Amino acid sequence: MRVWKRISTILAAAIAASSWLAGAAGAQDFPTRPIKMVIAFPAGGPTDFVGRILADKLKELLGQAVVIENKAGASGVIGGDYVAKSDPDGYTLFLTTVGAVAITPNMRTDMPYDPIKDFAPVSLVVRNTTILVVRTESPVTSAADLAALAKDKPGTIPFGSTGPGTTPHLALELFQSAAGVKFLHVPYRGAAPALTDLLGGQVQAVFLDVPVILSQVQGGKLKALAAASDTRNPMLPEVKTLAELGYPNTQSDNWYALLAPARTPAAVVDKLNKAVATALGDVGVRDKLLHSGAIPAPTSPGELGAFLKNELDRWGKIVREKGIKDS
Questions:
Q1: Considering the domain 32-127+254-322, what is its CATH architecture?
Q2: Share of residues in the chain with pLDDT > 90 (%)
Q3: Where are the alpha helices (DSSP H) in 63-184?
Q4: In the chain, domain spans
Q5: Neighbour count for residue 248 (Cβ, 10 Å)
Q6: What is the assigned CATH class of domain 130-227?
Q7: 101-122 per-position pLDDT tens digit
Q8: Do domains 32-127+254-322 and 130-227 have the same CATH topology?
Q9: Local confidence band at 14 (pLDDT 50, 70, 90 cut-offs)
Q10: What is the pTM assigned to this prediction?
């Protein structure tokens, strides 16, 4: 029995070693054909913009085309499910937002994938600061002014969001808790209609990502009151964070990360990670992203894995406390 046990141990080690060698050898040649980058939102949006900039640079670095495939719907779940079920060979990647892998999984009981078990982390890509904005014509000039309105008329001041469970909605929930007030939540299906109704005066305020509102702020159509972030955005350095203004625990950054299907060879993931880090370190790429309002934020696969787990736990607690359900 001892002899057979020893033989089994040796065979298992040999199989593991051969698998590792095969993966390492495959990574040396990878990629030998075009890579597909799935984006779970329509073409032309902020996620698509970042994805195309990254894809163009990765093509140059990896020597193969990186093709964007937009699979919109279900708050990113359709795209995520597609990638989770794809071959784990590095040729299908998921450029995800926080929603599809850290927020929505806490709101649904029928998720088709596990954000931790079904993906291999490659790298964080960018952080997008969430900004509290009002119309330029609004008499509100600060977050405190806005909170005072809600305190005078609880539950009646219309406050827009991009939909239940999105980062703008969660930013609103955290701001209400920190300020001890209650607004009238008006959910929209995305940033475009929320922004349109804010400009039209149908809602008093909205939290939106910097890439969505930057041109409107710079053009004088919107006033940026505060950032729901730990740090100020470099494109709006004069806009203080809510924490700086006395509203703690309001960090609601959106972020994009690159994931591969689980069981993608570690050597392939490592090669992709190095290419992403090099791409995001390129001066031209950084300038394009920063001037759009997105902050490049590359990480190691291990750092992204730990970050993803922490975000999943953090948003899960908030979703449960606020009783937020999927629409």
A1: 3-Layer(aba) Sandwich (3.40)
A2: 87
A3: 77-84, 98, 143-152, 167-179
A4: 32-127+254-322, 130-227
A5: 13
A6: alpha beta
A7: 999 999 999 999 999 999 999 9
A8: yes
A9: very low
A10: 0.89
